[in-house]
Design goal:
The complex is a heterodimer of chains A (358) and B (474). Among the domains of chain A are: 87 residues, Leucine-rich Repeat Variant (Alpha Horseshoe), CATH 1.25.10; 61 residues, no CATH class. In chain A, 69% of the residues lie in helices and 0% in strands. The longest helix of chain A is centred in the N-terminal third of the chain and has 54 residues. Chain A is extended, with a radius of gyration of 30 Å. The model of chain A has no long low-confidence stretch (mean pLDDT 90). Chain B folds into two domains: 150 residues, no CATH class; 264 residues, Spore Coat Polysaccharide Biosynthesis Protein SpsA, Chain A, CATH 3.90.550. In chain B, a hairpin with a 2-residue loop joins strand 9 and strand 10. The mean pLDDT of chain B is 92. The chains are: A mainly alpha (358), B alpha/beta (474). Chains A and B meet through helix 1, helix 6, helix 8, helix 9 and helix 17 of A and helix 1, helix 2, helix 12 and helix 13 of B.
Chain lengths: 358, 474
Amino acid sequence: MVIELHYFNLAILFFIVVILLLIGFILIYMHLRIKRSHKLHKWKLMANLLIRKAIFYEETEDDPANNIPITSRTKRLLLKNSHFRKLLTDELLNAKKNVSGSSAENLKHLYIQLGLHQYALAELKNYKWYIKAQAIQELSIMGLKENLTSVYRFTNNANELVRMEAQIAVVNFYGFEGLRFLDVISHPVTEWQQIQLLHELSHTTENFSGIEKWLKSENKTVVAFALKLAGNYHRFELHDSIVECLEDLDPNVRLQAIISLGEIYTDKTSEILISRYLIEDIKHQMAIVKVLQNIATNDDIPILLDQLNNENAALKLMVARTLAKIGADGFKSLQHHYQAQQYPLAEIIAQIKNELAL
Amino acid sequence: MNLLPVIIDIFTYGILAYSIILLLCYIFIGIYSIGEVNNYLHKNSFTDYRILAASTQAPSISILAPAYNEGANIIENVRSLLSIHYNNLEVIIINDGSKDDSLEKLIKGYDLYKVGFFVNQQIPTKNVRGVYKSHNHIYRKLIVVDKDNGGKADALNVGVNIAKNDYIVCIDVDCILEQDALLKLTKPFLEHPHHRVIATGGVIRIANGCEIEGGRLINVNLPKQFLPRVQTLEYIRAFLLARMAWSRLNGLLLISGAFGAFDKEIVIKCGGYNHNTVGEDMELVVRMRRYMKELNLPYKVAFIPDPLCWTEAPETFKILGRQRNRWTRGTIETLRLHKVMFFNPRYGLLGMISYPYWFFFEFLAPIVEFVGMAGFLVLGILGLINWIFFVTLLGFIFSFGFLYSIFAILMEVLTYHQYKRQKDILNLMLTALLEPLIFHPFVVWSAIKGNIDLLRKKNSWGEMTRKGFTTKKS
């Protein structure tokens, strides 16, 4: 066992050396961090002072370039200290997100005046994805539309985050017009990305086109997003194209089509959905019945009453709720159903009554 | 031929080989977790969670909080849950037949009345006595369910039956959530178009010693008492290193019962929580994974390294012993229920790596350690083993354990940096040094007792008395 002991002693020695190195590193790192936090605090005050000055800055005739006065200390720090530059950029971005109008324009002006956009443009060429994505986000928040070409080429980038930030940027720059990347995108547009894009689009009010093309995209996530757009923006002219999506093989597309039809229904929609209901799985059936809560009429009562015989209790509850929401006739027919006094329908009706009373 | 030296050699080298493999696993976990944490932090820096909070497209969530004899703090705890800012949310409190005045306090505190409610028994549960809602519109998100006592798993199953939303978030009612916790937990469900995310979990941290006000965490402090402090270190190691590494491998078997989100449809299809085990949180995740694997459906169990939820750790050996005893029984029961997966290639990584790891290094580790230590001591006393060898081997294991803890502290400092004072970090390091001498032997002993209790078919939860959080004085 002599050999083994020798190896073990060496291993213990190695572990101890690494432990000491790590402890030393942690303590030095924390010390530097505490020291830097004092400095950061001072820098933050400087940055906020400059930002405040920019927000309330008013043009004067004395300075045709309309430059915001910057102290020589700030200029010096900007040139030589990347930490300060980062902090000032972050503070500027935060401020820009929270202001609008001339104040926002002033902040953009300050950003360019300080030359911070040059750093962002240089970072677009960085090989690290998060630096690239950060730079795109920066240009987007600052509204530097003139850099659209540099940003647009990233909208179909292999890296998810770079792609997402580029897509958000072009939509931020050009509203619905910016969505043209959907024509060619080969990567999926995740649900999260769709939420972010819809959020960006909520700031714009102009009309837009292209949905029809996206509804026929090979990329199923693009189709789902187009369906959301059609529903959210009440594009009634797309009703028939959306109905076609009910036949799609992708279950998510079908589900989204059902939900969207609930937003842009015509007098034929309930009939179309009910015919689809019979061949769908339970998840889609539930979605159809839920949509029918807003669009079904007295004509649909008989078929809905039939569905009360379905064995799935969750579906039964949904059907009962839909019947009640059709109106007095629907609720009356529900109460007169032959199972109305039996479990579970009796309890379902009690719940519906309670919901209606709220 | 004398067989004794051969047996001793087999025993010694067996323990040695086991220890080295375990150490290698830890090294792999430590290194492998770095990339995942790093990647997450970079990704997260771009996320504006306000967008998700306000979006009508955000997934609908039902929070399920079982409560048993929580009368002392139930009003504040529920208020904390109701203050969560999220668009599509309902909060379901399940009073699991409390013997105290929890329900009365809730009825009075939130102006509740009994409503006609259809409980869809998709998962069989104990009797539901009533469902309550508030007259006050401010509390429209709140549903209180009163049921016969059936344990945590049964209470959660009632919650699943009642929940109307697509995702359920199971939480211990006395947990303190971070501001964005729910949003962070929800986001992974939206990020994987090619995989169905069936569950997500986040980091649980120890709240002992922290300042809490109105159900919100005001100040993070390192616990002053040794036991909670050593558990703080243990949680950092487990959540920041182990779970992140397993998440990167997509082999995570456990989402903490204190705070986790699940796809309700899959939970129901799997039959909900198993009330025959005390490890219902782990068992559900394993069953859901198994279900997806058996149907050959692409899926993912996501885990995020953000500290999302703060919980009170046991402060006495008595309570800690009960908790670890229960965790051991839960692990064994889960492994036993799903033994078909053991080295079964049909289950891929789940059967070939995750399950065997849990079997060999979570279930067997305390047994091997106990037997090894006892064996070496006996051999030493009988003069059959070289004491120098024994001490060296112990030193080897001890120094590696300390190194692993220091590495976890380093990761914590470089990432979330919750404990900002140098004194606290030094204190954690000292705790790491003492852990193998005081805490670890006790945990091993509790695990052995868990094994024995399981053999004796003891399946109680063991009472968990909580002291309550430190509230900021005004």
